[in-house]
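Now for a chain:

_____
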Amino acid sequence: MTDSLRTKKCRPCEGGVEALNPEQVGHMILQVPEWQADEEASVIARTFVFKNFKDAIVFVNKVAKVANDENHHPDIFLHGYKNVTISLTTHAIGGLSENDFIVAAKIDAFSLA
């Protein structure tokens, strides 16, 4: 299932649509099992741990490329010099959309490489 998310393209979202409900989020999160949804099912996040600062920065730059390619931008938090936490939400709708899961799946694809 994750492969299908990886092949999708984010669609522009300027609001006017409903955020995914907790049941839908529960189904979608199965496709990116390393990610965690918050209690309100409005944000998904994952922390990646690297060997050093340089590797963490290389990863952040890869995330930035995916975000720009998809025009869907996560929050990126570099902490402890080698840990990167990525969180995704669709700000325009105040919750999660399929776009968040598409970007998560694409990040997973290169984080495993």
